[in-house]
Predict the structure.
Amino acid sequence: VREEQLRRYARNIALSEVGIKGQEKLLAAKVLVIGAGGLGSPLLSYLAVAGVGTIGIIDYDRVELSNLQRQILFENSDIGRFKTQAAKDRLEEMNPDVNIILYSEKFKPENSNLISEYDIIADGSDNFATRFLVNAACLKYQKPLVSAAVRGFDGQIALFKPYLANQPCYRCLVSGEPDDERGCRDAGIIGALAGIIGSMQALEVIKEIVGIEQSLAGNMLILDGLTLNTRKVRIPKDPLCECWVMPKNIK
Ligand SMILES: [Zn+2]
């Protein structure tokens, strides 16, 4: 840890749970974020300023006017640009220490092996097809997955480590083929709720990197944005989960 880094990350290092050792782990860590949207904005921002050394971003969308109500990584002048490129410019301004790697493409079976190059995956995508594929690839390459979703006034976040005994995967939670393709893409959402849940994702990722044992692993936290009640529910491992038969669509 260099002198400038000691000052930049002083408040991380001041935590006994983090310290210099934890900061070094953060600087050495590689995190892949799927989707640079409402969840991805706070998630990427907090990972970057915390000093996560390498951050991969995969997103094939361009910034639209209707994104700016919640995707606070972007500004008016970014409209029409690739979200990945606009995010990289902004994040490098926040912390030039961080190495940002861009994938301006759809996450699909053909490129899903890029998950193998990262330590932790954070999914902020907006559709079930992508989430299922991310889950399958995380299972295949044995990577921890911090998954989150927001819809209306509801938010949820979970940490999956299905390669450990008795730990569930995302498919143990959501089976079958939910037909919400319209769902997250066009449903109403207050930006602040995405901000809360995306920030929680960043917190879980950072704890996982540093090696703090208390975590959400195997549980889902559900936030009701109207009452601000939270509930934490254990996700049982489904012995019949289709993920134990490895999906054929993964390279
Ligand atoms: Zn499963």
